[in-house]
UniProtKB/TrEMBL annotation:
Alphabetized HAMAP family for the sequence: Shikimate_DH_AroE
The protein's assembly and partners: Homodimer.
Pathway the protein acts in: Metabolic intermediate biosynthesis; chorismate biosynthesis; chorismate from D-erythrose 4-phosphate and phosphoenolpyruvate: step 4/7
Organism placement in taxonomy: Bacteria, Bacillati, Bacillota, Bacilli, Bacillales
The protein's name: Shikimate dehydrogenase (NADP(+))
Cell inner membrane listed as a keyword: no
């Protein structure tokens, strides 16, 4: 089975390690490769992958939207969000999926079983593709009160409008969000702020949270970001970003092969990999 990842730059991606582990776990012959290409070579690379009968591949920046015209079908999430991160070759046709939200929710519930029990009030920080995917998945889960905060409040409002949630959700500035943190049960940081090498950066102070708040960060390098360190110091429950990456991969692998995977043992190996143990 030929699998892979297309994007740029992707030389340091952990996806090959994860998916080759999954192939081994299920006793399947195959290989997960990196298909790195700059934007002017994207069309040729997709045609090469089709000709080579790549059974499935992941899509990362900057191609999650650009891939759409090359696909024959989209799942509901990909169609609604206008972005794809997983593609399956199905009877000669390429089908696109968006697993951002599904992978995130699986990782969240895996660590905090009560995280999506209603009623919950959720604050999402950021308005990019990950924020959209997570917002969509939370809505599908039945969580109604989801606010978005962003440096540019208009972008936050656009996400809310696009997801038809304007009657129940608010777009906030980061300063407004910081002043209202006490009201939220779950706070999700979806931007690249805090990613190495700028690992001491945070979007806002968490001085207003309570000890029952779940604070989540999708950044996974470093594993425990400055945002999560502050949350933990204030007594909050924390959720790491690497869980989302692993659960997305497990879900993508299931889409390609039909084989589900228990994440618990693999999570231990993945954490050792991230820590360099």
């Amino acid at each position: 089975m030929k699998l892979g990842l297309i994007g740029y730059p992707i030389a340091h991606s952990l996806s090959p390690w994860i998916h080759n582990q999954l192939l081994d776990i299920h006793g399947m012959l195959g290989e997960y490769q990196l298909f790195e290409c700059e934007t002017d070579g994207f069309a040729d690379k997709i045609n090469e992958m089709k000709a080579d009968h790549i059974a499935g591949f992941n899509v990362t920046v900057p191609y999650k939207e650009r891939i759409l015209p090359y696909l024959d079908e989209l799942d509901d999430a990909a169609r609604f969000l206008g972005a794809v991160n997983t593609v399956k070759l199905d009877k000669g046709r390429y089908v696109g999926y968006n697993t951002d939200g599904t992978g995130y929710l699986a990782s969240l519930v895996d660590r905090h079983a009560d995280a999506v029990e209603s009623p919950k009030q959720v604050l999402i920080l950021g308005s990019g593709g990950a924020a959209r995917g997570i917002f969509y998945a939370l809505l599908k889960q039945g969580i109604k009160k989801i606010d978005l905060a962003n440096r540019t409040i208009e972008k936050a409002q656009q996400v809310i409008d696009d997801l038809s949630a304007s009657s129940i959700s608010q777009a906030l500035s980061l300063k407004e969000a910081e002043e209202k943190l006490v009201k939220y049960d779950l706070i999700i940081q979806t931007t690249s702020v805090g990613m190495s090498p700028n690992h001491e950066q945070t979007l806002l102070s968490l001085s207003g949270i309570t000890k029952d708040t779940i604070v989540s960060d999708i950044v996974y390098r470093p594993m425990k970001t400055a945002f999560l360190r502050e949350a933990e110091a204030r007594g909050a429950r924390i959720h790491y970003g690497h869980g989302m990456l692993l659960h997305q991969a497990i879900y993508a692998f299931q889409i390609w092969t039909g084989k589900p995977t228990d994440a618990s043992e693999m999570m231990k190996a993945f954490e050792k990999k991230l820590k360099g143990v």
